[in-house]
Fold FMN-dependent NADH-azoreductase.
Amino acid sequence: MTQKRIFVLNGHPAERSISSALVDAYAKAAELAGHEVRQLNLHDLKFDMDYGMGGYKNAKPLEPDLETVLGNIEWAEHVVVSTPMWWGGVPAKLKGLFDRAFLPGRTFDTRGKLPKPMLKGRTSRVFLTSDTPGWYFRLIYGNALISQLKKQVLGFIGLKTKVTTFSGASHAPQKKIDHWVEKASDYGAQAL
C-alpha cells in the first residue's frame, strides 16, 4: 500500500467526545500502517470565528492556528474530519473555521465564470455523529448536511469526500461506541 500524508481534524468543540475518539483511533491506526499523520483538535484552536465585513478583497488576516489548518490541508493527500451534527449543521466553531480559512486564491479560484477548486487531487473522509436515525436523515432531511459537506464545502475546494455516519450518538451504549471506534481504526489502517 502506498503511504499517504494524512491530516486529521477533530471538529468537535469539546475536549472529550465521540468525535475525538474516532479521530484518535483513525490517526493511531494510520500511523501504525506507516502513513504520515498530522492531527489537530478544534477545541485547541484559537481564532475569531466571525468572517465579519471584510469581504474577499479586505479579508481578515488568518490567525496562526488557521494558517496551520490550511497548511495541513495543502500538505495532505487525504483529510479526515470528525464532527457532530447539531441543528442540521456542523458546530459553529467548525463552520467558522471553514468561513475564515477557505478563501479565494488559496482554496478556490474566482477568476473564471465559476469558482474553480484549487486543492484537487486530494481525498477526504468525514465521520458524522448525530442522534437522527440514518433512514430519517435520508428520507426527511434528504442528507442535506452530507451534501453540503461533500459538495459545497470540501468538494468546493477540490476534496473528493466520503461520509461515514454514526447515529444515536447522545445515548449510545459503550459497546456501540467501541464498534464505531473500531470502524474508524479500520479506515485509518487503510487510509480511507
Observations:
- The chain has one domain: 5-190.
- The chain has a mean pLDDT of 94.
- Residues 5-190 form a domain with the Rossmann fold fold (CATH 3.40.50.360).
- The first strand starts at residue 5 and ends at 10.
